[in-house]
């Protein structure tokens, strides 16, 4: 069951509510009986986006510390011979 977010245009009261697709959208604020504005799950999309970037940057920074292979990539003029020459 999807979660819908509403924000009151009168008093600014915002809340989430679980509704099925068949249910009618809320239009009246439970706090002040003002007019509600429906917000389309922007919270879920933002959460996924930020989580993806956090995981990506986190693994990248940790691997560069322990793995020397990540260092040559940062150098502008790196020769492939340095990999086998030890
Ligand atoms: Zn209100």
UniProtKB/TrEMBL annotation:
Pfam families this protein is in?
Zn_ribbon_8
Top-level taxonomic group: Bacteria
SMART domains under this entry? CxxC_CXXC_SSSS
Pinpoint the Putative regulatory protein FmdB zinc ribbon domain residues.
1-41
Q: Which InterPro entries match?
A: Regulatory_FmdB_Zinc_ribbon (IPR013429)
For bias kind Low complexity, which ranges apply? 59-86
- Give the start-end ranges of region Disordered: 52-86
Stored NCBIfam families: CxxC_CxxC_SSSS
Q: What is this protein called?
A: FmdB family transcriptional regulator
Species per Swiss-Prot/TrEMBL record: Flavimobilis rhizosphaerae
Q: What is the lineage of its organism?
A: Bacteria, Bacillati, Actinomycetota, Actinomycetes, Micrococcales
